[in-house]
Amino acid sequence: MEKTLVIIKPSAIERGLIGEVIHRFERKGLQLCGMKMMQLSDEILIEHYAHLAQRTFFKRIKDSMMITPVIVCCWKGLHSVHIVRTMAGVTNGREAAQGTIRGDFSVSVQENIVHTSDTVENAKIELARFFNDNEIFEFEQSGLGFLYANDEI
Ligand code: UDP
Ligand code: MG
After folding, report:
1. pLDDT tens for residues 92-140?
2. CATH code of the domain made up of 2-137
3. Could you tell me the pTM of the whole model?
4. Who is most buried in 36, 51, 76, 93, counting CB within 10 A?
5. 3-state secondary structure (DSSP) of residue 4
């Protein structure tokens, strides 16, 4: 099954939304298989946000990701990359649909509560960027038969 990365950003940490974010993915039926608090460095953010390196606001978003520690999580499930990305909503919190994390808790493009991997390929790269192998736990989620039909998994 797919695994994807969620970063609970400083905007969520500061606003007391850690539990809310985790609760949503947990209730959806995804399995938490790795989670840790870490202080991001300039180096890891240059790599993680390389696609934005030429943008004028690059330093601003890097700085905003280092204001507090963040929580990185690995969520597993069938099509979890797409599910988690959809649950986060579009980048701009002012435009994100109500019911999504960003739509419900953000009024900003930058201060938008969570990072979520955008493709299956990037999820693999990003998980390897933020987690060591021994920090991702492989264990059977109980009650799988109540989450999926036999022929879905
Ligand atoms: N960002 C920003 N201004 C922009 C575009 C992006 O502040 O015009 C920030 C925002 O926090 C966003 C992050 O940079 O979540 C990464 O941008 P990306 O385009 O990858 O958006 P995401 O995948 O997070 O929706
Ligand atoms: Mg992105």
Report:
1. 999 999 999 999 999 999 999 999 999 999 999 999 999 999 999 999 9
2. 3.30.70.141
3. 0.98
4. 93
5. strand
Q: Is there an atom of ligand 1 within 6 Å of 63 CB?
A: no
Ligand 1: which of 60, 81, 109 to mutate, most ligand atoms within 8 Å of CB?
109
Q: Tell me, yes or no, if 115 is annotated catalytic.
A: yes
- Whether 32 is in the pocket of ligand 1, judged by its Cβ within 6 Å, is no
Ligand 1 proximity of 91 Cβ (cutoff 6 Å):
yes
The domain limits of the chain are 2-137
pLDDT at position 102, please?
99
62 lines ligand 1 (CB under 6 A): no
Query: What distance in Å separates the CA atoms of residue 37 and residue 45, rounded to the nearest whole number?
Result: 15
pLDDT at 142: 87
